[in-house]
Specification:
heterodimer; A: mainly alpha; 2 domains; about 75% helix; about 0% strand; B: alpha+beta; TATA-Binding Protein; five-stranded antiparallel β-sheet; 23 strands; binds protoporphyrin IX containing FE
């Protein structure tokens, strides 16, 4: 009954309804809707936690070994990021509209995967390593940070336009563009060290499994590309003083590269990582 | 304190100045000293330490890397011509896109990045150090009021009480304080998280270590693949010792999937067995800096293990013997005057009529054939090829017998990756430093407050102004909290 697929279906709907509530909340401005949206998000996140736990019990190993499982992990981390902002900076509840939507999109994408990608296969020998668990967790904390920054970047572009136009707009309830810009930076600054750690752990693991820490396979190379993009972002921002739209575009492009690294490389390009 | 003043009004400039005061000042100094330095040297220097160059290099490296993942690397030219056509292949080979990550321009970009890093870092280090260690209590309340974040608090109590209150509040928030008691007033500098300033140089230095390690890896490291056969020692030249694989086996899951595979290795150095270990995927053996990684396994079809031959008498058609031969080992057949050797094997028989050579057309077992040396009555009478799929196709005229290839087996090998990489430790050292640097830099913020306590007619005025090198949002909250505590 409480197997991971069942829980997965539940969180799919809970996140969907929560995201809708948040968007509804933006237009009708009734606090009760906001509370409902928040409560649903918490329930969804608990269900998400349970889905990960159920998967662990079903497979007897950490649930991060294929695309489907990592998507559940990713949505779990994204919503956790949101809950942290929400609890730390209470007034930012409206951000749920964008962040929970992104978490829902992650779940939705996982639901679209063909069944053979969803079943839990036993681990092939190269994947049986504790380095793998660390590698996946840190990498996905990084992706989650970038995903949130991506949402904030898109929001920034709309909000900034609304601010320039003045007058009433749908985006009035969002925090100021300046704050969105700063928050976006904070999430990239969260994602970057974790993605870097993920790359390093991946290198350690590759060295243990294959006897070489770097072999320029497409997944490794794309992780480096993503890394260069965000390094460019930091240097532009910290040293050249880039702000606002320029950095918003960077966080969007950076995350598109992450999506390619995550899905594109597995399906489009051949290489060692073809299994996850 | 040269950073203060009106420049600090602009948050973008705070970010800018806070991070590279060094550059701006050094360039100005350079210009002042003008005469001695020629313009072109100065220009090159400015170019080499600019962050614009760094961002450009990131961009170019990313573009190059993308090209390397879109075009498959290291194929023979025919493959590219088939895929892209002659015209495109011209450009692909001209730009060395068949081996992006090791070609001259990619290496050049990496080298430029290293130089950029070194020049920029050497210039910035003194300024970073100054920002890290600067303590300056000589300021007026005008300066305090110039900060973007500043306020004045009316404090009920005398100067000393105000000072104690400030001390309480800021010490409670883990700030380090410096005081200067002037005749009229008290100056206080409060700072925390200065260590956060060192994160950036640490992470930049670490990139250097990683680059050096990578160069060492590719310059003096070696990495190669060896098939190991049970009981056959392999001499490892790079370490002047031998390794024997004593046993190879595979574990399966219940559903038949492969769970793991293992090789039992013994190291023989100077004729003595020094160590043994069972390695598996993700668990290598290391001896004298040489690592042995279990990387694959397979069947070595280029050599056989056993060959099964059915021998029949030509006249009677009766089976004389079903003989099992060890590959390339002569064996007498009991009850006959035959001695047989299976001397060669090809998986896909082919004959080159010009050179008169037998060769394998492919690795597939399309037409397997074994060459047999037949020694009958004490002399070698024939060396025919016999075919698994076409028995009795070419009877051997000189022999009393017919020979049929009934089957064959090949030995299993354990595929080991052998590597010695003196660069790898530098890479790991750099990686650890990189992580330390990044976490320090991104999660520890340098927050400073300049506080001036001055008496006024009725009570005491406390001027508070502060800056942070990062996290302006969190800083505002901290500042609000501090003000509320009064
Ligand atoms: C692959 C190479 C590089 C990496 C991974 C890297 C990484 C970083 C990171 C993460 C930051 C932000 C640090 C912070 O927030 O305190 C930063 C800042 C900075 N980087 Fe780099 N960097 C690289 C190359 C360079 C180069 C070549 C230059 C020289 C122009 C440079 C100049 C700077 C400067 C001036 C800052 C300002 C921040 C500070 O020092 O506090 N970086 N770098």
């Amino acid at each position: 009954m409480f197997n991971s697929y069942f829980l997965f279906d539940i969180i799919f709907w809970v996140y969907l309804i929560a995201a809708c509530c948040y968007i509804f909340y933006l237009s009708i401005r009734k606090e009760i809707v906001g509370h409902l949206a928040f409560a649903l998000t918490v329930i969804g996140w608990l269900g998400n936690t349970a889905a990960l736990a159920a998967r662990t019990m079903e497979t007897g190993r950490a649930p991060y070994a294929n695309l489907y499982e990592t998507m559940i992990l990713l949505s779990w981390l994204i919503v956790m990021c949101y809950l942290v902002i929400e609890i730390k900076y209470l007034r930012l509840r409206v951000l749920g509209a964008i962040i929970v939507s992104i978490a829902f999109l992650a779940i939705g994408a996982a639901a679209m995967l063909p069944y053979r990608y969803q079943v839990a296969e036993p681990l092939i020998p190269a994947l049986q390593s504790n380095w793998l668990i660390l590698h996946v967790i840190t990498t996905f904390v990084g992706y989650a940070g970038f995903a949130v920054a991506f949402g904030l970047g898109i929001l920034y572009l709309f909000k900034e336009r609304a601010e320039r136009k003045k007058g009433f707009s749908f985006f009035d309830r969002f925090p100021s563009a300046e704050l969105l810009d700063d928050l976006g930076y904070r999430f990239i600054a969260l994602g970057f060290p974790f993605v870097t750690l993920g790359i390093i752990l991946g290198a350690i693991w590759a060295n243990y499994a294959w006897g070489g820490y770097w072999s320029w396979d497409p997944k490794e190379t794309w992780s480096l590309i993503v890394w260069f993009i965000y390094a460019g972002y930091f240097h532009g921002r910290l040293v050249r003083g880039w702000r606002g739209r320029k950095t918003a575009y960077f966080s969007i492009i950076g995350f598109l590269a992450v999506i390619f690294l995550y899905w594109g490389v597995s399906f489009v390009l051949p290489g060692l990582h073809a299994y996850a | 304190m040269h950073l203060c003043g009106e420049l600090l009004q602009n948050p973008a400039l705070i970010g800018f100045l806070d991070n590279i005061p060094g550059m701006v000042y050094a360039i100005k100094l350079h210009r002042k000293k003008g005469g001695k330095v020629t313009i072109s040297v100065q220009k090159i220097y400015n170019f080499l330490c600019s962050v614009k160059l760094a961002v450009t290099l990131f961009f170019l490296l990313a573009i190059g890397s993308i090209a390397g993942t879109l075009i498959e690397q290291g194929l023979p030219p025919e493959e590219y011509i088939k895929e892209y056509g002659e015209r495109w292949y011209y450009w692909i080979s001209l730009l060395r896109l068949t081996d992006v990550y090791h070609n001259w321009w990619f290496s050049l970009l990496l080298a430029l990045l290293a130089i950029n890093l070194a020049v920029c870092l050497s210039k910035r280090l003194p300024y970073i150090w100054r920002a890290y260690s600067a303590v300056d209590c000589d300021f007026t309340h005008n300066l305090v009021e110039n900060f973007k974040h500043h306020t004045v608090i009316q404090f009920q109590g005398n100067i000393e009480e105000a000072k104690r209150k400030v001390e309480d509040i800021l010490k409670g928030r883990k700030y380090k304080l410096w005081f200067e008691n002037n005749p009229q007033n008290i100056s206080i500098l409060a700072a925390k998280g200065a260590i956060g300033r060192l994160g950036s140089p640490i992470s930049h230095i670490s990139i250097f270590l990683i680059l050096i390690g990578a160069v060492l890896s590719s310059a003096v490291g070696f990495r190669s693949f060896y098939p190991f056969f049970e009981g056959e020692p392999v001499y490892i030249q790079e370490g002047n010792f031998s390794v024997v694989m004593d046993k190879f086996w595979i574990d399966y899951y219940e559903n038949g999937g492969i769970k793991d595979y293992f090789s039992n290795l013994s190291v023989i150095d100077n004729g003595k067995m020094v160590t043994t270990k069972t390695i598996q995927v993700n668990d290598p053996l290391q001896y004298k800096g040489v690592w042995f990684y279990q990387s694959s396994y397979g069947t070595a079809w280029d050599r056989l293990d056993k060959v099964y031959i059915r021998i029949t008498d030509k006249k009677s058609g009766k089976v004389v013997a079903d003989e099992t031969l060890d590959f390339r080992k002569e064996k007498g057949v009991a009850g006959t005057d035959l001695r047989l050797t299976a001397s060669n094997f090809v998986s896909h028989f082919a004959f080159d009529s010009q050179t008169k050579q037998i060769f394998a057309k492919s690795a597939e077992h399309e037409n397997p054939a074994v060459q047999l040396e037949i020694n009958e009555g004490g002399k070698l009478i024939a060396t025919p090829w016999i075919f698994y799929k076409y028995p009795n196709m070419f009877p051997i005229e000189k022999s009393k017998y017919n020979f049929v290839l009934a089957g064959y087996t090949a030995p299993q090998y354990s595929g080991l990756q052998i590597a010695k990489d003196p660069g790898v430790n530098l890479v790991w050292a750099g990686s650890i430093l990189l992580m330390v640097g990044l976490f320090v830099s991104f999660f520890i913020f340098h927050r400073r407050f300049w506080i001036k306590i001055e008496p006024s007619e009725k009570n005491t005025l406390i001027y508070i102004g502060g800056i942070t090198n990062k996290d302006h949002f969190g800083f505002e909250k901290e500042m609000d909290g501090i003000i509320k505590s009064f």
